[in-house]
Amino acid sequence: AEVSTQSTGWYDVSGEMILPETKSIAQALSQRLSDTPSTFFRDSVTGEDVVTELDCLLYGHLNAIFMSKLPNYRMKRALGVHPRLILFCKHMENAHGMKKHGNW
């Protein structure tokens, strides 16, 4: 079924309303990631990264924001102050074969 921004309540949301939520989410994700390159989950037996839907969705969203030419860069700056998010993106590209789209 098709879901529109109007039916989900995001139709009339301004950038000023989204930015605080973006900052909060970025902080929570950054706290969940470690200072060493990894995905969100590790195999309990092997200790190796396990790439999940969460990792792929996060990488896709972050990549779209960081690599797009946006009308203003407030969201990019809000995310960029979290080095763990950038480290996560680099790790997904280098260790898990995600296509490189630019310089982080």
Q: Could you tell me the radius of gyration in angstroms? A: 15 Å
What percent of residues adopt helix (DSSP H or I)? 40-55%
End-to-end span in angstroms?
A: 36 Å
Classification by helices and strands: mainly alpha
Largest sheet: 2 strands, antiparallel
Overall average pLDDT: 82
Number of helices: 4
Strand content: under 5%
What is the total tally of β strands?
2
Tell me the overall shape: elongated
Low-confidence stretches: none
How would you characterize the overall build of this protein?
- The chain is mostly helical.
- The chain is built from four helices and two strands; from the N terminus they run αββααα.
- The chain has helices spanning 15-32, 53-67, 74-80, 83-96, and strands at 41-42, 49-50.
- A two-stranded antiparallel ribbon has the order 1-2.
- A hairpin with a 6-residue loop joins strand 1 (41-42) and strand 2 (49-50).
- Helix 1 (15-32) packs parallel to helix 3 and helix 2 packs across helix 4.
- The radius of gyration is 15 Å and the shape is elongated.
- It starts with 14 loop residues before the first helix and ends in an 8-residue tail after the last helix.
- The model has no long low-confidence stretch (mean pLDDT 82).
